[in-house]
Amino acid sequence: MKIYIIGAGKMGKSIHALMQENGLDVRLIHHTELHSTENNLTVDADFIIETIIEDLEAKKKLFTELEKICPLKCVFTSNTSSLPLDAISHSHRFLGMHFFNPPTVMKLVEVERTVYTSREAEQQAWDLAMRLSKRPIQKRIVNPILFTMLDKACEMFLQQDKGGSTGNHITFETIDLAFRLGLNHKLGPFELMGFIGFDTCEAIFKQFQLKYGVRFIKMFKW
Question: Taking the model in full, what pTM does it have?
Answer without folding.
Answer: 0.85
